[in-house]
Amino acid sequence: xxxxxxxxxxxxxxxxxxxxxxxxxxxxxxxxxxxxxxxxxxxxxxxxxxxxxxxxxxxxxxxxxxxxxxxxxxxxxxxxxxxxxxxxxxxxxxxxxxxxxxxxxxxxxxxxxxxxxxxxxxxxxxxxxxxxxxxxxxxxxxxxxxxxxxxxxxxxxxxxxxxxxxxxxxxxxxxxxxxxxxxxxxxxxxxxxxxxxxxxxxxxxxxxxxxxxxxxxxxxxxxxxxxxxxxxxxxxxxxxxxxxxxxxxxxxxxxxxxxxxxxxxxxxxxxxxx
Length: 274
Hints:
Elements (H helix, E strand, L loop, with lengths): L5 E5 L3 H10 L6 E5 L2 H10 L5 E5 L7 H11 L4 E7 L3 H11 L3 E5 L3 H69 L3 E6 L4 E4 L1 H7 L3 H4 L4 H4 L2 H9 L6 E8 L2 E10 L6 E8 L4
Helix pairs in contact: 2-3, 3-4
């Protein structure tokens, strides 16, 4: 709301307009005056935001209620007050709803009551404007929140699709590993068992569920641990003959240093080295 407070007083009698100007002489209002409803509508269109209009009821041509109805149609935020002589009270009261009138004040008016009515009208105007502003802000925030939720839902769907695909790939890789005629054993750099296919479990006489996630020193045969500890990027080993639990095996080891995949892969086959 602008810091400027504009009041428009409309009456066909010049002395009434001067009296209204005197009523608000000590208030920080800018007073506009018009001698007819038509002139008042022109001022409303050119003066900027007028917060309160005070209009006489009996005027030649367009009467006060007709004028205020038009004010409501063109400037619905403006607070509308009608003045009238006692003889017009019943007619004005009947027309209040028609003109969406905030208050009816009889002539002659009490200056302090009129000032209080205008002060309350200005407060009502400010509250309405603030409510409109808050509603607009809330609508904007809800729109922004809706966009955030839509983006979040899209990201969740994309991530879910990625995870679903990754799980399918991992499951497929696990199935492929289990079908290989050669044992595969995966270890982290600190010696934790993270992979063991079916052939490796059979050759080493172990159960994968019991050793996956465990340290190799606690679960694997010592011969395997010794070989795995000796392998590095600069010292891979070809197939080495090894006797494990009385079985002749050939074991090859290679170190992996790719990001997120650092560790050691051992491949295990039956039979002695030719």
